[in-house]
Amino acid sequence: MSQSNQRFPLIGLFTGKVVQNYGITTAMAKQLVSGRIFLSETGLVGDECAEPKFHGGTERALHQYPQEHYAFWQQQYPERAWPSPGMGENLSTRGMLEEHVRIGDQYQWGEAIIEISQPRSPCFKVNHRWDVPGFSEVMQTTGKCGWLYRVIQTGEVSAAAPLVLIRPGEARFNVKQVLDWYFNDPMNPEKLRELQACQALSKSWKSTIEKRLTTGELENWQFRLNGKPSV
């Protein structure tokens, strides 16, 4: 999927408020947006995040999650119902998967222009959302995480406006490949140096990659994935 001007219709557009739900403080329970809404540099007007240190901001303004993944999770955990937008996504689509899209892909969306900045890093709150212990680790290992955007140009957007690819990122940096290198082979120096060459990759991921290369140590994922400090 490298050709410019490809058009991808949205299935849904969602925003949410911070509430107490699933036994946690979260904005994961998002609601469908109808009509036009303004997209600022930090996200959709009215969309909130519970942990600004780990979510949101200019490099993580939007989260997109492929609708196709819900069928996979239904097969893995048939005792659950898996409705969208159950991953807290803002954008729901079909036909855009991690192996198809690239870090640095730019899309015209209504009046706005958005750019893929990084894969989504799963956290322990999805474990609570779905009542599946360890779900964040399964999501991370399988790479079915979705991805995040920075906003290049603000403006009004809507679910009726498709995503139109206007500038593809580099083929070697498709989101699935970046996920695999970063999470599933995290201390491979050759792959880390390859990731350093990805100009559009978010500053936070680049900073972590630099620390791995400098220290030779992997950061502790325990709290992010399980919500408990390591002993």
Main features:
231 residues; three-stranded antiparallel beta sheet; 7 helices; 14 strands
Explain how this protein is built.
The protein has 231 residues and is of the alpha+beta class. The protein starts with 6 loop residues before the first strand and ends in a 5-residue tail after the last helix. α1 links the parallel β8 and β9. It has a 9-stranded mixed beta sheet with strand order 1-14-10-11-12-8-9-2-5. A 3-stranded antiparallel beta sheet has the order 7-6-13, with no helix packed on it. A two-stranded antiparallel sheet has the order 3-4. It is globular, with a radius of gyration of 17 Å. α5 runs antiparallel to α6 (203-215). The longest helix has 13 residues, at 203-215. It has 7 helices and 14 strands.
Give the topology, please.
Blueprint: E1 7-8, E2 10-15, E3 19-21, E4 24-26, E5 31-32, E6 37-40, E7 43-44, E8 62-66, H1 69-76, E9 91-93, E10 106-109, E11 112-119, H2 125-130, H3 135-142, E12 147-153, E13 155-157, E14 163-167, H4 175-184, H5 189-196, H6 203-215, H7 222-226
Parallel strand pairs: 8-9
Antiparallel strand pairs: 1-14, 2-5, 2-9, 3-4, 6-7, 6-13, 8-12, 10-11, 10-14, 11-12
Helix pairs in contact: 5-6
